[in-house]
Design a protein that fits this description.
The protein is α/β, with parallel strands linked by helices. The chain has 23 helices and 28 strands. The strands form eight sheets. Strands 4-6-5-8-9-10-11 form a seven-stranded mixed β-sheet. The chain has a six-stranded parallel β-sheet with strand order 3-28-7-27-26-12, sandwiched between helices. Helix 5 packs across helix 17 and helix 5 packs antiparallel against helix 20.
Amino acid sequence: MSHLSNYFLHRDGFSFRESQRMPSAHNLSCQMLNMGDPLWCFVGRRLLGVVGSDNCSAIYIVRFLFCPTYDHSIVYPGPNLNMIVGANGTGKSSIVCAICLGLGGKTAILGRGDKVGLYVKRGCNKGSIEIELYKPRGNLVINREIHVENNQSVWMLNGRHSSQKAVEEEVKALQIQVSNLCQFLPQNVCKEKASALEKFKQRNERNKHDVKRYYEKKRHLDMIEMLEKKKPWVEYETARMELEGVKKEREDAKKQLKTLRESQAPMLKKIQHIDSQLRPIENQMKEKTARIKEASQKCKQKQDHLDRKHREIEDIKQAFSLKQTEEADRQKRISNTRRMIDDLRAELSNIGDVSDVTPQIDAVNSEIKRIQAEKAEIEGENTDLSREKDNLMAECALLKNQLRSLDDMMKIKEAKLRGRSRDTYSAIQWLRQNKNLFSGNVYEPMMLVISVRNPEHAKYVENHIPFNDLRAFVFQKREDMEKFMAEVRDKQNLKVNAVFAPDGSGATRIPSRPIESLERFGFFAYLRELFDAPEEVMSYLCNQYKVHDVPVGTDRTKAMIKTVIEEPYLKVLYTAEEKYSLKKSLYSGKISTSNSAVRPSQYLTMAVDAEDKRQKELQIKAAEKSMQAIDSRMSTMRESVLKLDRRDNELKAKKKELSELKGKKRQLEQKISAKQDSLRQMEQGGIDLQKAEEETKTQISAVNSQKVAIVAEFMTHMKLSMEKVYTALETMGLTAEKTKLENDCREGSAELRQACAKLDQRKARLLETCKGLMRTAREICKMDPGESAVPQDLHTAFCQLPDTLDEIDSMLNEERSRAECFTGLSENVVDEYNKREQEIKNLEKELDDKNKALDTYRRNISEAKERWLNPLKQLVEQINVKFSDFFCSMQCAGEVDLHSENEEEYDKYGIRIRVKFRSNTQLHELTAHHQSGGERSVSTMLYLMALQELNRCPFRVVDEINQGMDPVNERRVFDIVVRTACKETTSQYFFITPKLLQNLQYADEMTVLCVHNGPHMLPPYKWDEKGFIRRCLRRKGKQ
């Protein structure tokens, strides 16, 4: 080993000494990091002159204070490949974090915490990072001071205060892209104008018709306005002409009234003569009326008496009729009774002597009692079965309601999954229809089968299990998973995740410590105890995420966190609101921690216990089976009861027949005796109809004699009424003649007087109407009050219009109807139309200019595309050649190509990597699901190597990419990295790893940075560099 330079730093300061040259098979530059307590760090040596000429903007010096692992550290990287080696927990990734954050990178790139304050050592209020970038005309020094309290940063450029944006611009100018994974790979992560013109034209074309209709409507409205102006003048003229006619009619009526009064004088004398004749006749009428009134009272009394006699005769006749009906009914009853007695005697004679049937009746009674007892027993059993069935139905309904609630919760969870990953939801539907294709157990995505016992604890499970695994299907057998992925991913092109459970059952793994031993820190359960899942799913989670060994605590745990992290065996833990990850140094025993806030749960809050659901389904099936058995048993018992009922009815009929036979003779004798007694009573109660008829006739004759006397008195009073009638007729004749004469006189004069009164009223009304119409006409035409003549312009217009009201009204209605047809129009339409016409002209001119410019742009784009795409394809082809060569050297296959579904969508262009690690498989696209973690690491590393010579950038950082590789691939990849990164023309390279294989090939251009930490490191003044070299040589000589 030659050029072995050792650098050590202690809390009192740092010093470095360069050792003597020593012979070795390789020229290797090596630095060691010695960290005490508090931790100090010094790594590397200054870049030599080779950096100045070949690698502008490479990292020259990195200094940081109070970053996650170190109190103070300085790193001097080499110009080519920098191999940063150190055990887990020594702080290798702290160097990566310092480079990223010091160059303005986001915390999301590192994936270790979302707040920049989390990257300051615990217990410190602030930390600082200083990075010096090499530049030929003077290095660029970037300083970032991070404040924990408010997660804010203070930036400086070359010792002067600056902003983060200015720093980012300086870094960008040096072609440093921290967010580009190909450069920095951390451990965890005119048409519009044309359219407007066309719309304007279409809208104006639509509005053109509206504008035409607007002007047509305006013509009709103008005509309506003119007609409405002329109409009051025509109405005034019509009313004035009518007034003149009324005046003339009034004068004529007055003359006719005077002539009529002169011709009615003889008729008035005759009316006076008739009045003298009517006076004595009216006196006679009054006298006769008084006498008739008195006689009427007497006649009314006689009439009432006569009515009573009529009713008395009717009552006598009705009483006799009732006696006739009663006697006919008696004779009929006697006849029926005699016939019944004869029938009963005949039936009694037919019965004769009957033997004793009592023993037979007793036997029938015994059989009936036995049947009733058997029926009671069956009915009791049937009641018990009905009660049992009702209980089963209630239990089944309750279980179905509970199962329906579980299904509703499952549908909500499926809806959330569909909103986040529609491909996974489609794969679930396919799996449910094709589950018979698989030989082992297959489970839907974990988020659907995991049931959190307490919704408040769902956030811990979700924060611990990544969403990619929550939406992953779980398979018991690997061949089932490959069959599933071949169908849904390769054939259906769905982006889904799938995992298979470990061979052994990990669901029953025992925690490293009982939870009772951690209760004093506030821990109440391990993560596995917070949820239920199928055995295979739980086994996978225990194996992959150690859920059986992750304790969950409370706020008490947070308060005691400094004591908690000192406990052995704790690697990951949860407090009430935070997640802590702990790493313990194998050398010093020191604990490094990182924490992050626990995100609220999104998917597991609604827990669905799959086992509980399955048990409920089994209980429902068992209950339904029991109900079917009960129904069958009850049906059998119903048939038995029907048979017993039929036998019981037969026995009762037989018993009735025997009982009736025994008592029938006695009953017949009793009935005959009763009927004979009834017959004797009916024969004794007869009525003499002849005698009753004679009595009735005598009574009616006496009443008729009384009626004749009453009618004679009534006729005497009727003569007086006839005299009054004759006198009244004479009076009516004279009165009628008088009335006729009076009516003739009255009608002639009354009609004329009424006509004169109406004409007076009509004249006054028309006069007022004329005045009102004149005022209205003047107002409509906007004339002065004293002006009576129509203005000349209106007179000319009026001459072209009709002269009658009917014609004006007809024309006005017609014009209004036409105007009403033009709805939805306004002056705004015309204004918008004219305005848009001007806009169309402006847009047409602008569009013409844009089209000319667009043609020029298209030509330029076509030329630029040729200049850009062809070199890009050549560059990708060069990457592909190197990438394929690297894979061929590993006896594998790989290729890189430029991929885009549409050549015109330049933002959709991308690099597609396809690899094959086994000879019996096809090339598959590099994804997070198809290849293993080690295969992805190898592919990523070789792709970066392929870029090394083609894509120049100041430096590249790769953190622990060899962790998942097998030893063979790791050795091959290491050789490729050394060969590629140690060329003179390549960029600066940082390769961070916790371990290396033995007997690797090294290069002179490499810089090895060995990171050590712990409280037992020697201080600089005790370090014997020469003695260390002698011991190394002596050890090597013995080998």
